Amino acid sequence: FLGAGGGNDIQWCFSQVKGAVDDDVAEADIISTVEFNHSGELLATGDKGGRVVIFQQEQENKTQSHSRGEYNVYSTFQSHEPEFDYLKSLEIEEKINKIRWLPQKNAAQFLLSTNDKTIKLWKISERDKRPEGYNLKEEDGRYRDPTTVTTLRVPVFRPMDLMVEASPRRIFANAHTYHINSISINSDYETYLSADDLRINLWHLEITDRSFNIVDIKPANMEELTEVITAAEFHPNSCSTFVYSSSKGTIRLCDMRASALCDRHSKLFEEPEDPSNRSFFSEIISSISDVKFSHSGRYMMTRDYLSVKIWDLNMENRPVETYQVHEYLRSKLCSLYENDCIFDKFECCWNGSDRQVEFLTLIVMTGSYNNFFRMFDRNTKRDVTLEASRENNKPRTVLKPRKVCASGKRKKDEISVDSLDFNKKILHTAWHPKENIIAVATTNNLYIFQDKMN
Amino acid sequence: MECTLDAQSLISISLRKIHSSRAQRGGIKLHKNLLVSYVLRNARQLYLSERYAELYRRQQHYPDGAPLLAMPACPPPAAAAPPELAALPLPADTQDREARSCGAARGGAELLEVPVCAVPPELQRAPCRDSSPGFYRAAGSAGPGGGGSAAPGLLYAAGCDFASGGAPHCSSRTTVLDLDTHVVTTVENGYLHQDCCSQCPCCCQPAPGLASPPPAPGTKRKYYPGQEEEEEGVEEGEPGGGGVAGGPPFAPCTKRARFEEYSAEHPQDSSNISNLISIFGSGFTGLVSRQQADSEQPLNGQLCSKQALASLGAWTRAIVAF
């Protein structure tokens, strides 16, 4: 297993946990998205209450070379509020579905955050000085009587306690009839796409009153609807290429140069279903919940309910790799349908871009139940199950691999499938772009793990 | 794969999920309801195939056509299942649900749908058409979760007639608002009218030859934020029939013309059934294989077993249409 020591295997250690200790989870605190920025210095989370919390990594302390900097709260702001669409009599949830960072161009940081209907561009900037010494204003802001001014002075900037301000710079609204599930910034850093169940729109970051529809799968007759769009992402290098996944387990790659409306795909990635696995729930478990390109753009990864698949963009008829995340759940699909867990949308992520050298060091991470998360190493062919739990919270203690006993005699330290807590699910994980640092979100807590530095 | 639930329980659980999804914050989740409709279809297929198998076995034993389960004599496939399904355990009593829906429709802004009550009891006696009304009754009885004629992405408003004193009498009218085009459509007794297209040529001329124009080729429009407000004023008098710029609004119109033509030729009860079948059976070709669901011939009164399955498969989508 990874973590069992030896060679290039990563040994993961607990670093920090953020969030309430309470077992009673407030609905608004449920984490709905996690994302590192491009340098890894900032880590953003969004929650069901519409808030965004940004953590910043401390600068590395030379004396504490055994661990990297800790993440502390940098900024918190209310990104979205609940809204009511009076025309359609619909409530619009404030839950943050996705956050995506823009690469940093100046002192300020920018991110896109979206709920079901509206995308917002936020500017996060620091203020560490303020002007003092105005002639007509007191320090508290009250205006001075001009007749009392006897001398003039030039206001100067004086240092102040660091203040981090978040302000909405753009609001991209009214372009989606259905629920937005994805946003993805183009490699040109000027445009981005937003995808809902049936449509994908292309925006320019500077322009809010107009967007271009580039994919529309709404049938003329809604009775003929058979699939919806579940995720979409731009290619990391080719600014005219993007992919979108569907509830039917297919991925379509589209080229915007081919036509204005990319209704015809350039490539269709689909693996034929194994007929021996056919069940009432086949359609549900084949629905793709996340799609992510590798750093090079040569590969992409998809997550469906039970597995993670790695696809080579040059091969459409089957994935190059399939990892079973929790195959032991296949015989439990009925119960998981009853309690709605079968509809959980797990995300997946690659190891940091700097660590991916062609095909060799590709590692995949995804979540499961009982606060377990899984990693698959393409190179070593090994996988590991780890747990995000406050019980393992001694810093620098290596996490112990976990094992689920599917059937038969349960060995010591194994957990039987029936003891799994399906309310403890890890849907969102993120990997630092440069270091072996990972952020794992349980229901309302954020865990940060680092590899053991020797 | 083992499943601890039988098909019938799965069906009722699924219907319950669809029903409760209406109350969830954030509006109806199209994706989830689509997936639930697949489970419904799968469970129904299993249920039907089991019924057919059993009836076939019985027919082998009684080749002289002795009555089966007190159903009228008919080819087994078409007559199977529905009376049973009509007895599905449903979340609430049918009467109460309809009454509540009608009552609530008077209240606030919340839009509800009324199940299509357009299935008079006499239809139950029609041979080989039992299947349809039974299903639709079940679907209709499922309350707000079912019985509609539109699909996800559309909203219903209850259309109830309170003129008769005492208990509200539900006319079989369902009003649908398409979330995209904001076109309001009313289904009345199986007839579809597009409310805002009084000048719509195909709707107003139900020529037997089906002279309605084909749907505009799908050059889809750009979606401009804020455009909705502009187009609402335009919709009403739009000769194109209320579709907003570029969209193909006439696909349903062609079917409407057929409905009106067909029912003009047939007595009321059979026209109701075939209208319902046409509404539901013509689409959903994705759910059922394309070979089976031939949308070009929806109007035969007698349906062979395959077509019955195909058209009946559509009610699962109708369930999703809330």
TrEMBL record, chain A:
GO molecular function: protein phosphatase regulator activity
Keyword Secreted in annotation: no
Keyword Repeat among record annotations: yes
Domain of life: Eukaryota
Gene Ontology cellular component annotations, sorted alphabetically: protein phosphatase type 2A complex
InterPro entries per UniProt: PP2A_PR55, PP2A_PR55_CS, WD40/YVTN_repeat-like_dom_sf, WD40_repeat_dom_sf, WD40_rpt
Keywords from the named record: Repeat, WD repeat
Family the entry assigns: Belongs to the phosphatase 2A regulatory subunit B family.
Protein name: Serine/threonine-protein phosphatase 2A 55 kDa regulatory subunit B
Organism in which the protein naturally occurs: Elachura formosa
Top-level taxonomy: Eukaryota, Metazoa, Chordata, Craniata, Vertebrata
From TrEMBL, chain B:
Region feature (Disordered): 214-246
Domain of life assignment: Eukaryota
Biased amino acid composition, Acidic residues: 227-238
Pfam family for this entry, one: IER
InterPro entries for this protein: IER
Family to which the UniProt record says this protein belongs: Belongs to the IER family.
PANTHER family, A to Z: IMMEDIATE EARLY RESPONSE GENE (PTHR15895)
The protein's name in its UniProt record: IER5L protein
Annotated source species: Elachura formosa (spotted wren-babbler)
Species lineage: Eukaryota, Metazoa, Chordata, Craniata, Vertebrata
